[in-house]
Amino acid sequence: MGLFTQIVTLPLAPVRGVGWVVERVLEAAEQEYYDPEPVERELAALEKELLAGRIDEETFEEREEVLLDRLEEIAAFRRGEPAP
C-alpha cells in the first residue's frame, strides 16, 4: 500500500480491526465446535454407563446415534464438505 492509500483509508482502520477480531473469534469458535475429542470422550463415557448398568441398551443406542451423527458432521466439515 502506498502512503496516499494508507492516509485515505485511515478512517476505516477501526472497522478493519473489528473485522479482523470477529474473524479470529469465529475461527476459534469453529475450532472448538468442530473438535472431535469431546464427542469421543462422551462416547466413551456413554459406553461406561452402559457397561456399569446405569443406562439401558435403548438409551445407549439413542444417545450413541446422536454422538455418531455429530462425529460425521465434524468429519464432513474437516473435509470441506457440507454437513450431512
Describe the structure concisely.
The chain is mainly α.
Describe this structure as you would to a colleague.
- It is a single chain.
- The chain has helices at 3-9, 13-33, 36-52, 57-79.
- Helix content is 81%, strand content 0%.
- It is rod-shaped and about 70 Å long.
- Helix 3 runs antiparallel to helix 4.
- The mean pLDDT is 89.
- With 84 residues, the protein is mostly helical.
- The relative contact order is 0.09.
Descriptive tags:
single chain, mainly alpha, 84 residues
Give the topology, please.
Elements: H1 3-9, H2 13-33, H3 36-52, H4 57-79
Helix pairs in contact: 3-4
Number of helices: 4
Classification by helices and strands: mainly alpha
Average pLDDT, to the nearest integer? Answer: 89
Instruction: Compute the CA-based radius of gyration.
Output: 22 Å
What is the string of SSEs from the N terminus onward? HHHH
Indicate the overall shape: rod-shaped
* Residue share in β-strands: under 5%
Estimate the helix proportion, in percent. Answer: over 70%
Terminal residue distance: 43 Å
Strand segment count: 0
Query: How would a textbook summarize the main sheet?
Result: none
List unreliable stretches of 5+ residues: none
